[in-house]
Design goal:
251 residues, mainly alpha, particulate methane monooxygenase, chain B, two-stranded antiparallel ribbon, 3% strand, globular
Length: 251
């Protein structure tokens, strides 16, 4: 009889597989982050653009209405993919984090260092909490219906109050050349931009337009209701993408 020889091949193979999986993850995860950064920043620049670039354009009427409609698209599409295939409620947090990271890099390198705009004028708004809200709602309800009904509504409702602690200091009233305006308006007058300046293209014509008043909550509630339909629509688009032949798992 011969002594049994331990099978080291299986152990070696398992260790090598784990090492290969780890190396693959270390390669693919940064690539996915870079992909999301590029896609989301380009998408956000096209749909929101100046509303989020400049501090004096983040008004009480159009900025909180346009932003949730644009920022919900990729969390819905990629969120459906990650949840359907991997059961990971990370679509909103991952994509919006990539957007914020790309925005900070772009604002600092392009707007601040290259164009000499102060960071106080061009810093990105805070949106990561909105992605966390969508993902937590999906994790708790496990339902796209309730995630859209509650989560997407809160995304549209909370954009303005979530950024208010940062924006409040720029809404302080000041007098300049006999005209009552805000600190954000002073930035817009003092720093010339290549786009049409605000004194030629008035964003919102009213008295003390950036101090809140009744328009802000009405806009937030309206944005929340519109964003529910917007979220459900892009969830449907994501479901169509998952069912496509090129992304279907081959057995």
């Amino acid at each position: 009889m011969t002594a049994a020889v331990p099978n080291d091949t299986a152990v070696t193979t398992t260790a090598e597989q784990r090492r290969s999986y780890l190396q693959f993850d270390m390669l693919i995860i940064p690539l996915v982050v870079l992909l999301f950064m590029g896609i989301f920043s380009f998408h956000f620049a096209l749909l929101v653009g100046d509303w989020d670039y400049w501090i004096d354009w983040r008004d009480r009427r159009w900025w909180p209405l346009v932003t949730p409609l644009a920022i919900t698209v990729l969390p819905a599409v990629f969120g459906y993919l990650l949840w359907d295939k991997l059961r990971l409620p990370l679509g909103g947090t991952l994509t919006i984090f990539c957007l914020s990271l790309a925005a900070w890099i772009s604002r600092y390198l392009n707007f601040h260092l290259l164009a000499n705009f102060p960071m106080d004028m061009v810093f990105p708004s805070s949106y990561v909490g909105l992605g966390l809200l969508l993902d937590c709602m999906l994790l708790l309800t496990r339902s796209w219906f309730f995630t859209g009904l509650i989560g997407a509504f809160l995304v549209g409702l909370l954009i303005y109050p979530m950024n208010w602690p940062i924006l409040a200091q720029y809404h302080v009233p000041v007098e300049m050349d006999g005209i009552l305006m805000t600190v954000a308006d002073v930035f817009g007058f003092e720093y010339v931009r290549t786009s049409i300046p605000e004194y030629l293209r008035i964003i919102e014509q009213s008295t003390l337009r950036t101090f809140g008043e009744a328009v802000t909550p009405l806009t937030a509630v309206f944005a929340g209701f519109i964003n529910i339909i917007n979220y459900w629509f892009w969830i449907w688009i994501g479901s169509l993408g998952v069912k496509a032949i090129w992304i279907r798992k081959i057995v």
